[in-house]
Amino acid sequence: MNEQKIELTSRQRELLLRGLRYVRSSVAMDPQDYSREVEAARQRQYAEISELETLLNGATLSKMASKV
Q1: Angstrom distance (rounded) from CA 3 to CA 35
Q2: Which end of the chain is more exposed for a tag (fewer CB within 10 A), N or C?
Q3: CA-to-CA distance for 45 and 40, rounded, in angstroms?
């Protein structure tokens, strides 16, 4: 995976985390007939979302932008 460093304000991070909560809900509410494949795909999506949340929770906050 190609890494890239970004700095976020606390507001930007909160907006991204809120968006990820919406995405998680969207995955959960997606009306699909149950199958093992569907459940496996859903679990992969949850894992990807959790990984992003972990990255955002550890993200460096920009000191300059946090004054806004």
Answers
A1: 34
A2: N
A3: 9
